[in-house]
């Protein structure tokens, strides 16, 4: 059965309604375009009125009267000025048009994709930050994530770059295992392939996760601007330290945040241990330290690997020796031990005698040892002394003697390090890729960043002994790789022996230029009896000439009958024999009271006697028989 068509009046009604809607919309758009300036001015006037009302409400009541009087005076002045009302009207309309202009709305919250990511991160943290006994949990399934996340920042790709999390007070943030679980979860949910830093604020129950910027890799090894006793190991994030140094980065000079290691007799970590994988940059770090140490000290370099990486240091001023063989390394370390003892002896004698420390003792001495485990295996095979045993004296007494020891080795050789080396190398550096357990085993503290996916050579983590709780990331400066010089047979190279020149007087001699000095005991304290040279300041009258007169050339004797000793201290015999006598520094004469001061006439100056007058020549003798 065919369907009957609708009446014409019903079929044409919907079309007319649609046409009328289109006409009304077009008219509204045209009116909006025509009246757009008026709408903008009205919107601006409304905003100006709201702003004025808020300022009037914020004004104290005692100030409203003067402000109202000032406004009335301004209106009266404008009314009396020619063309004042017209100019005031134009000014108000311009301000209203500027205030009511259309602005691009600023996005204040996350978009849909970002909200989804934050919601998933919140749901993943619920099992770790909630307990069943909590009546009002901060983290709950289906809860409000805006209460837990105080702040967040996304990059252009929609990935988190900063997140601030508030956690309940009953979370065990003091346990390293609990913190590690949270850090691993945030690292996984926020996206792999990046490095994250976690800052725990246990007092405020807050965790801040950030993505640090990559460290610079273009800064080369150079002489940095530092104070005496400071060495730059690398560079770190700008917010990690409160100091910058000017460095050359290519053709420009920039300010970088350094990792400064302080040495000397007041340092709490006088010796350094660097550990890394093969090719991680430990040798380059030692070369950078050697370049900086040569400015004010002497350097002994021992290359256990024997690859000739330190051949470029041979022949430089201040490099005492560059050894790569077992025999040369043992001789050099034995000399370094005796040199440490000699410095201690001379420092002790100088302090007892009240004299300044000699310059050759105050000059710093650096012992740079690379791969000591290799030399230890060679010494064990030959039945000789382990080189690490010869480092006991420099490691234990190096801070007082001005001797600094720097060691570098690999992770697989950590078990071969002696207990002395582990105890006294309080400054630690880990370079190259390493797991969290390896970094904790070397530094004694967990790092505050996650391991990056790709670790370039020279990138690592450092920690000082007083602050083991903070192990921050750093990067050492790169050095230029050059072809080492040819080394003589036996793998030994020494500046003092190859150049044919004698070492300077103010530096210790090379171990090959002189025999090893014997061990010397520390001297005993020397006691002397000092003759009083000045009368008592409270003596009213000076002694009579008869009592104070002494025969010239006769020594005064003490009550015991012994001749009195002068202010001279005879030091014990040293390596070079008996030292010359050293006089004590004279103390200034005490001042007399004014009432008993005695003025003595000044002594006449001694002048050279006048030469005798020349004798007159005798008259010539006449020959006999000749008349005068």
TrEMBL record:
Residues 480-501, 535-547 have a biased composition (Low complexity). ATP binds at residues 276-283. The keyword Nucleotidyltransferase does not apply. Residues 256-440 form the FtsK domain. Residues 445-628 are annotated as: Disordered. Gene3D superfamilies: P-loop containing nucleotide triphosphate hydrolases (3.40.50.300). Residues 609-628 have a biased composition (Pro residues). Residues 548-558 have a biased composition (Basic residues). It comes from the Bacteria. Keywords: ATP-binding, Membrane, Nucleotide-binding, Transmembrane, Transmembrane helix. Residues 559-569 have a biased composition (Basic and acidic residues). This is FtsK domain-containing protein.
């Amino acid at each position: 059965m065919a369907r009957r068509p609708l009446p014409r009046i019903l079929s044409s009604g919907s079309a007319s309604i649609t046409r009328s809607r289109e006409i009304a919309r077009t008219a509204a758009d045209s009116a909006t375009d025509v009246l757009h300036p008026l709408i903008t001015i009205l919107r601006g006037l409304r905003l100006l009125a709201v702003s004025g009302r808020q300022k009037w409400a914020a004004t104290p009541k005692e100030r409203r009267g003067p402000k109202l009087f000032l406004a009335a005076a301004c209106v009266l002045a404008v009314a009396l000025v020619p063309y004042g009302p017209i100019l005031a009207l134009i000014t108000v309309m311009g301000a209203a048009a500027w205030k009511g202009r259309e602005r691009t709305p600023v996005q204040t919250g996350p978009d849909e994709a970002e909200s989804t990511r934050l919601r998933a991160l919140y749901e993943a943290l619920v099992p770790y930050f909630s307990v069943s006994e909590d009546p009002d949990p901060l983290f709950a399934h289906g809860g409000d994530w805006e209460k837990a996340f105080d702040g967040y920042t996304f990059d252009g790709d929609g990935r988190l770059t900063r997140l601030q999390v508030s956690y309940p007070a009953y979370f065990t943030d003091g346990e390293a295992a609990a913190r590690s679980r949270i850090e691993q979860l945030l690292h996984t949910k926020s996206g792999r392939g990046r490095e994250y830093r976690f800052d725990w604020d246990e007092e405020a129950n807050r965790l801040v996760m950030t993505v640090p910027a990559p460290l610079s890799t273009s800064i080369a090894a150079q002489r940095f601007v530092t104070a005496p006793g400071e060495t730059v190991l690398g560079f770190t994030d700008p917010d990690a330290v409160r100091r910058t140094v000017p460095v050359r980065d290519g053709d420009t000079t920039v300010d970088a945040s350094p990792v400064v290691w302080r040495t000397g007799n007041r340092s709490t970590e006088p010796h350094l241990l660097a550990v890394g994988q093969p090719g991680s940059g430990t040798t380059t770090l030692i070369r950078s330290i050697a370049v900086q140490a040569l400015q004010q000290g002497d350097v002994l370099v021992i290359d256990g690997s024997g690859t000739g990486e330190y051949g470029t240091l041979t022949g430089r001023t201040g490099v005492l020796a560059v050894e790569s063989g077992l025999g040369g390394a043992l001789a050099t370390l034995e000399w370094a031990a005796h040199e440490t003892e000699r410095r201690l002896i001379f420092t002790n004698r100088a302090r007892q005698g009240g004299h300044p420390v000699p310059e050759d003792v105050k000059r710093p001495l650096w012992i740079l040892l690379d791969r000591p485990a290799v030399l230890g295996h060679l010494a064990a095979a030959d039945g000789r002394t382990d080189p690490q045993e010869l480092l006991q004296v420099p490691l234990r007494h190096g801070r007082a003697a001005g001797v600094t020891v720097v060691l570098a080795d690999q992770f697989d050789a950590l078990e071969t390090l002696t207990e002395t080396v582990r105890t006294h190398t309080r400054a630690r550096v880990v370079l190259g890729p390493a797991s969290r357990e390896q970094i904790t085993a070397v530094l004694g503290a967990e790092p505050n960043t996650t391991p990056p996916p790709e670790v370039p050579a020279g990138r690592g983590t450092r920690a000082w002994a007083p602050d083991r709780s903070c192990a921050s990331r750093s990067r050492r400066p790169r050095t230029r790789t050059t072809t080492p010089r040819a080394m003589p047979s036996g793998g030994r190279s020494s500046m003092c022996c190859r150049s044919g020149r004698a070492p300077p007087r103010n530096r210790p001699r090379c171990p090959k230029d002189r025999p090893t000095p014997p061990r010397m005991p520390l001297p005993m304290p020397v006691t002397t009896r000092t003759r009083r040279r000045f009368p008592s300041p409270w003596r009213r009258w000076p002694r009579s000439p008869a009592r104070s007169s002494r025969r010239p050339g006769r020594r005064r004797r003490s009550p015991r009958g012994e001749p009195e000793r002068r202010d001279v201290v005879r030091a014990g015999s040293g390596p070079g024999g008996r030292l010359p006598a050293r006089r004590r520094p004279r103390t200034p004469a005490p001042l007399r009271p004014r009432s008993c001061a005695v003025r003595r006439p000044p002594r006449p100056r001694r002048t050279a006697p006048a030469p005798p007058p020349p004798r007159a020549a005798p008259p010539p003798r006449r020959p006999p028989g000749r008349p005068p």
